[in-house]
Write a structure and sequence with these properties.
2 copies of one chain form a homodimer. By secondary structure, chain A is α/β, with parallel strands linked by helices. Chain A contains 15 helices and 8 strands.
Chain lengths: 322, 322
């Protein structure tokens, strides 16, 4: 069955045709008419998926091994789709894809579907493609969707924001000199994990995180509703993984109880809408502002007769509702 | 002299009034009418500044100490302005600012002006504020401007892109598991530094970088014109710093010889223009698309009757040149 009709593919995928699921994901990754049709068919799934879990943290923190364990936990309560985000570069291609091999433990399990996604060179690409891929996986019948991101940059943080519950992974001994990174990760964390906790410094890392949470409690109102638990794990031998999964489930339950789950999902859709509109406007900028006008203003900027701010003002003044 | 008139401030700053320089930088950081006036007054400086050097790399790589050394090198040929970018978070405030203390060795030198800039919570904020700050520092008479960024995310890479010559700092023993980070850094590097080269693994790190450059040579045409040299330094005791500065100067000379310097600077201005327009459009989205229309479409999205892509298409169709 090699159809490229999204409706036909979706029906086949729901019956368990994994190739069809893969082709639907390719459609939303590629965009265009097929992507748009797939998006339209799967939009309702963002409400029906049971659990969307994000897993993020610095490179080398052991996220793939931990993801592998969490797939096992989630599998006990249903099917699992995984989006493994590869911030690989045009410079090296997909150097990181080798890491994914570890997750292939589940590759023979028809209840698990794993997909790697790479950045496509343009900013905003992944943060728009990932939520669509999550909806596809939900629409084909995955009960839990796990989003794994490598790295701690802004893009990864945006991607992790596509989850209901975000798990942030650190290791013992992450230095005092990464305060900024820590802060960025703490902001998005619903559950904190010190992985490789068999190494020296695990208890200190936990104290450190708890101290940061204490310090933040006064200024971050959300911490009064939910304080991210700090869980120690050794993904390699499975220590602490059950406790981690229990924390994820507990967070999901709390969200649902307080009506926050629906609100989080609505907010994510609105943010996705905003980003999509901005991306389209950015792609079409010279035409929107009038090609000739844009060229004329750009020439003034390059000649240093006009600064980019004033130039932007002039161009934006030429764009409006119609 | 507490004027807030940018023209008056600029004249005072050129005469050596450091407070006036600080206030001009605050104006471009804050934006608004004062920022716009400052931008207009300083736009020509992007052509006249002798050297804009970016310094970036992972947290803890010793960039501040290295920046301190490079200030000394640049000082031998003229005045030096420094923009130290702090990707600090609203969660912790400016936790990293303490690091800057090391650069205060130069705080009594009237030929050196150091400014820390923090992210202001919105994406694109820094990548727009930094080039403006560079122009202010150039306009008040700084011969060299050094941009130091902490971190290796997309925002930092964009910020580093505001430089003529970008120096990327790594340490011995940066793991094999950070291929993606490496690739991103290699893409922007004009000069590569293995700092803390007194530690074990420095030679291996250099071989590693050279091997990556070899591998990239076939597919990256720019490497035929300029292959980033790999320099070993120990910023703490100054070892290798002269060699590093020589590489920075050599890169600048090569750029100027091939007419690439003017082209790089023009390209940066055009990219800055594009980003500024996109940022303004993004800030004004609902009004541009028509407030009522935007609300109606957003409500359809939240109700899962319309996916964000189709919704964006509908909204973008309502925006155009006039």
């Amino acid at each position: 069955m090699r159809s490229r009709d999204p409706a036909v593919l979706l029906e086949a995928a729901r019956r368990g045709d994994r190739g069809a699921t893969g082709r639907l994901l390719s459609l939303v990754e590629t965009g265009g008419a097929g992507g748009a049709a797939t998006a339209a068919l799967t939009v309702a799934a963002s409400a029906s998926v049971r659990r969307v879990v994000g897993l993020t943290g610095a490179p080398g923190a052991g996220k793939s091994t931990l993801a592998d364990r969490l797939i096992g936990c989630a599998r006990a309560e249903g099917t699992v789709g995984v989006v493994a985000v590869d911030p690989s570069s045009p410079f090296t291609g997909g150097a990181i894809l080798g890491d994914r091999v570890r997750m292939q433990d589940h590759s023979d399990d028809p209840g698990v579907f794993i997909r790697s996604m790479a950045t496509r060179g343009h900013l905003g690409g992944l943060s728009l493609a990932v939520p669509q891929a999550v909806r596809v996986l939900a629409a084909v019948g995955m009960d839990t969707v796990l989003i794994e991101t490598v790295g701690v940059g802004q893009v990864e943080i945006e991607v992790a924001g596509a989850a209901d519950t975000t798990v942030v992974v650190v290791n013992p001994g992450w230095g005092d000199d990464v305060q900024a990174t820590k802060a960025g990760l703490l902001e998005i964390a619903d559950v904190l994990v010190v992985n490789k906790a068999d190494r020296p410094g695990a208890a200190a890392a936990r104290r450190d995180l708890e101290a940061m949470l204490d310090a933040a409690a006064a200024s971050v109102p959300a911490l009064a509703d939910w304080r991210p638990p700090v869980v120690l794990t050794s993904a390699a031998d499975g220590t602490g993984v059950d406790e981690l999964w229990a924390a994820v489930v507990e967070h999901g339950t709390r969200l649902a109880e307080h009506g926050q789950l629906a609100r989080r999902r609505s907010d994510r859709l609105l943010e996705e809408l905003r980003r999509t509109v901005v991306q389209r406007l950015a792609a079409d900028l010279p035409r929107l502002a009038g090609d000739e006008r844009y060229e004329r203003v750009a020439a003034e900027v390059v000649a240093h007769r006009l600064d980019p701010q004033l130039a932007a003002e002039e161009l934006v003044a030429g764009i409006g509702g119609r």
